[in-house]
Amino acid sequence: MSRLFIPVLLMLLPRFLPTIIKYFMLVWRLSFDRRVNIIIRGLVPLGLVYFLWPFDLIKDNIPLIGRMDDLIILGMAVLFLVKLSPQHVVDEHLGRAAPSDRPEDKDPSQVVDGKARFIDEEQDS
User: Fold this and answer.
1) 67 near 7, Cβ under 8 Å?
2) What pLDDT is attached to residue 69?
3) DSSP string for residues in 54-69
4) Which of 11, 37, 94, 100 could form a disulfide with 105 if both were Cys (CB 3.0 to 4.6 A apart)?
5) pLDDT of amino acid 125
6) Which residues contact 65 (CB under 8 A, 6 or more apart)?
7) d(CA 41, CA 77)
8) What share of the chain has pLDDT > 90, as a percent?
């Protein structure tokens, strides 16, 4: 099993490495962005402390779950950080442009250009 797993992992790693680095940088930036709630920003450091802490809530002698609980907690902390952060902040850190609500951008053919001029009421009298 491990003889097959490692070559497949090495084949897929270059393909997914840019995405992994992009989301690692997103989590790093969101953790220090003051526009994100401090409780949400504290999830990833708490998840890292649980990951590195030698004592577990679920003992390691329980098959599969006991050894994976650290990764599950850390993964959930990262997921909650990204999903509960304001969407415009996440989009800004990912380099996505915010969608425009301006009518000129939606359908330029339906926009009429015009000029406006204010007439002083005292001059008309």
Assistant:
1) no
2) 83
3) S--SS-TTSTTHHHHH
4) 100
5) 53
6) 58
7) 9
8) 38
15-29 core/surface letters (b: 16 or more CB in 10 A; e: else): eeeeeeeeeeebbeb
Four-residue CA torsion sign, 100, 103, 108, 112: negative
Tokens of 55: 């004592």
Give the model confidence (pLDDT) of 3-59 as tens digits. 777 888 788 888 888 988 999 999 999 999 999 999 999 999 999 998 888 777 777
pLDDT in tens, 59-76: 767 777 777 888 888 999
Q: How is the chain split among helix, strand and coil, in percent rounded to 5?
A: 65, 0, 35
Residue 64 corresponds to which amino acid? L
